[in-house]
Amino acid sequence: MHDFNYKHNNLYCESVSIEELARKYGTPLYVYSRNTLINHYRKIKEAFSLINPLICFSMKANSNLSICRTLVKEGAGLDIVSGGELYRALKTGVSSRKIVYAGVGKTEKEIEIAIRHQILFFNVESIPELRLINKVAGRLGIRQKVAVRINPDIKARTHKYITTGHGENKFGIDFETAKTIFLNSDKYEHLNISGIHVHIGSQIVDAEPFIKAIERIADFIKDLEQRGAGIRWLNIGGGLGIIYSNERPQTAREYAKAVIPVLKRAMTNVILEPGRFIIGNAGILVTRVNYLKETPGKNFAIVDAGMNDLIRPSLYGAHHEILPVRSQSYAGSKKIRTFDVVGPICESGDFLGKNRKFIDLKQGDLLSVMGAGAYGFSMSSNYNSRPRTAEVMVEGTKAKLIRRRETYEDLIKTEL
Ligand code: LLP
């Protein structure tokens, strides 16, 4: 499932020891396995080979250029949500015909740059946005393809901050309004409204909500076709869940098997936008224990990574496994103790894990926060004026620095 394994009680990424990487590059440190990354991309590609979709990696999960470029070289497109992600995407060398652009708040400037670069699709989230894209496309004399993002009003079992396909969420357009758009598409003379987009949420572990959403959309497409609207593309978003602790998510193959028959009914080209599934388990965050602090109420392992480096536990109460980089086998004299693993940030919400058991944990030990590849670095910040971490990618026996650690000068370089 991933390439982080113990050899002689030491954690390795592929054939490189994590201890060695921590010594060389310092901590906190994000470490990625190139093999795990590529394998997960290929898993989806192979699972869907019957319909050969365009797989656009969702850059918000991890927008490091080396990571995106690795996937682009494998044939992936990119799913973006901002002018900044477009800028990064273009730096990877991806064909702009493989870029899809979602998000409820695209600015006129962002829209203009994306049209100039002739991206494949805007995934449009409201009528005012549709009007604006039409206006800008007219000004530029370019006919732009757009997909209407549907909000299918489906509840997916996941954290409330990461559901997006429920009627109360800010995303997408309801079926009725979407129908009006398609049936009056000649009103938008500079647009080719030829796709439908749907993304119901993230870290979804079963196929059922996906199937429900796609079924509703397949019916919708059929209905519109009878009325003469030509929908050529269906983008089913991302959202595939991964294993953080004891989830039993559907595999790519199970997911494909469940949704392909429904997709076939829609008879369109298909786009997927996976993020977490591809990069989630391909990355870890390595951190060092700076202090062990015992209080009457709790034991704390105070580590050098904080919520600014990995915010998922603080923000969503997300669970990440935390493993010792040097594993201790249990021998009678050694003590198993329970700790809250916390960072140095001045907030009580700054924790990476609660009530975690370790054998003989000591000051100076290295810990590995697992499954940190997606929404880890990409959501990190400089809170408490902490320089952001370095990132390293391992390929076999080699490790490459793919982002240097920020310096104190970096912290102030944009200030006047
Ligand atoms: N497509 C769209 C339109 C999206 O909004 C997202 C994620 C994706 C694709 C990729 O979803 P994935 O395959 O990664 O589930 N920060 C949260 C997750 C937020 C997801 C936002 N949208 C977390 O750390 O769990």
Number of helices: 12
Basic shape: elongated
- What is the gyration radius calculated from CA atoms? 23 Å
What is the makeup of the main sheet? 9 strands, mixed
Spell out which ligands are present: ligand LLP
- Give start-end ranges of low-pLDDT stretches: none
What does this structure look like?
The chain is α/β, with parallel strands linked by helices and 416 residues long. 29% of the residues lie in helices and 25% in strands. The chain is built from 12 helices and 20 strands. The longest helix is centred in the middle third of the chain and has 19 residues, at 208-226. The radius of gyration is 23 Å and the shape is elongated. Ligand LLP binds next to helix 10 and helix 11.
Using brief descriptors, characterize the structure shown.
416 residues, alpha/beta, nine-stranded mixed β-sheet, eight-stranded parallel barrel, 12 helices, 20 strands, 25% strand, binds ligand LLP
Task: Please summarize what this structure is.
The chain has 416 residues and is of the alpha/beta class. The chain has helices at 18-25, 34-47, 65-73, 83-91, 108-116, 127-140, 175-183, 208-226, 252-266, 276-279, 312-316, 408-412, and strands at 4-7, 10-13, 16-17, 29-33, 54-58, 77-80, 99-101, 121-124, 144-149, 191-197, 233-235, 269-272, 283-294, 299-303, 322-324, 336-342, 351-359, 366-369, 390-395, 398-403.
